[in-house]
Write a structure and sequence with these properties.
By secondary structure, the chain is of the alpha+beta class. It folds into two domains: 2-188, no CATH class; 193-308, Transferase(Phosphotransferase) domain 1 (Transferase(Phosphotransferase), domain 1). It is built from eleven helices and eleven strands. The strands form three sheets. The chain has a six-stranded antiparallel β-barrel with strand order 1-2-3-4-6-5. The protein has a three-stranded antiparallel β-sheet with strand order 7-9-10. A hairpin with a 6-residue loop joins strand 2 (28-37) and strand 3. Helix 2 packs across helix 5 (123-147), helix 3 packs across helix 5 (123-147) and helix 9 packs across helix 11. It is globular.
């Protein structure tokens, strides 16, 4: 089982077994890790090498696993203890006696439990909460990619497969493994540099157009009914193509909300104004590049500022 591991398995050179979901009909494959993106935050992201031509999966892809054990930033944010094999053993016992199922059912029926009782939880309860939370993040990421299917491979990476990294549990019971197995996705690997590093990788004369493209992508995603609460300049990868042509891709969609979750148009646009996804890129890059990029606020966000950010609105 997973608790038999003494340390993080996501290191270069290691292999990982994956069970692919649709359209691959639960086919199991093995991948080899060639690069790891550390530190891990909400998920564990790495580059893996695949050699499965019959499935159309070859070469380097990004494997993103929503693994509660090693999501270091998420554990730190919640003030949970770092993962240990002993914590995993306790969590396994918590699952086997039925407590995990009962606990997670309560979490999903009362949204206030974490806020009201979280400070009193023990380690197994913390693990149960994290597992459930990671499933929510995974579900949001997948829904975002599906919503943005028409711009996959253009403005965001292509989603190749949803998957599970099966636990090493000796138990074969789905009722046990569903609280241990790790969900994830296989994505197109964009070989490039972070938007925040543009000054070191691209000539000054392209900074304006590259940053403008990043903002346009933010707005195209918003046009498709998505509000991203995690728009940061590090969530953009810039790919250099022949002839010093640069293409921007946006990544990381686990902290998105969707238009259907809001009561009405006014509520939706109010939160779009408050979140200010466009400004999260524009203002930051303008300050960072010291005149190499001038942020011109779009008509849409000027209108949102006027409607929702005037002092008398609230």
């Amino acid at each position: 089982m997973a608790h038999q591991e003494e340390k993080c398995p996501y290191v270069v050179g290691n292999t990982i077994k994956l069970r692919l979901g649709a359209p691959y009909d639960q086919q199991e494959i093995t991948t080899k890790i060639t690069r790891v993106f550390e530190p891990f935050t909400l998920s564990c992201a790495m580059v893996v090498l695949l050699d499965h031509p019959a499935l159309g999966l070859t070469g380097h892809l990004v494997l993103k696993l929503f693994d509660r054990r090693f999501a270091a930033q998420l554990r730190k944010d919640h003030k949970f203890n770092p993962w240990t094999p002993e914590i995993e053993r306790q969590y396994h016992d918590f699952i086997l006696d039925g407590s995990a199922s009962e606990f997670i059912t309560r979490l999903n029926t009362d949204s206030k439990i974490a806020e009201e009782e979280g400070d009193t939880w023990n380690d197994p309860q913390n693990e149960g909460y994290l597992h459930d939370h990671m499933q929510d993040l995974y579900g949001t990421e997948v829904e975002a990619y599906q919503t943005l299917k028409d711009i996959q491979g253009k403005d965001i990476p292509q989603l190749f497969a949803c998957l599970t990294a099966p636990s090493a549990s000796l138990s074969q019971k789905p009722s046990v493994n569903k609280y241990i197995d790790v969900s994830g996705v296989l994505l197109q690997y964009i070989d490039g540099f972070l938007l925040t590093d543009i000054a070191a990788h691209a000539p000054r004369e392209v900074w304006q157009s590259v940053c403008d493209e990043a903002i346009q992508i933010v707005n195209r995603i918003g046009d498709r009914g998505i509000l991203n609460e995690d728009v940061k300049t590090r969530n953009f990868i810039v790919q250099e193509n022949p002839g010093r042509k640069f293409k921007v891709f946006m990544i990381d969609f686990a902290l998105c909300n969707f238009r259907s979750e809001y009561e009405d148009e006014t509520d939706w646009w109010k939160w779009k104004a408050i979140q200010d996804e466009e400004g999260a890129v524009g203002y930051v890059m303008q300050k960072y590049l010291h005149g190499g990029f001038v942020y011109r606020r779009s008509a849409r966000y000027k209108q949102l500022d006027w409607e929702f950010k005037r002092a008398d609105v609230y």
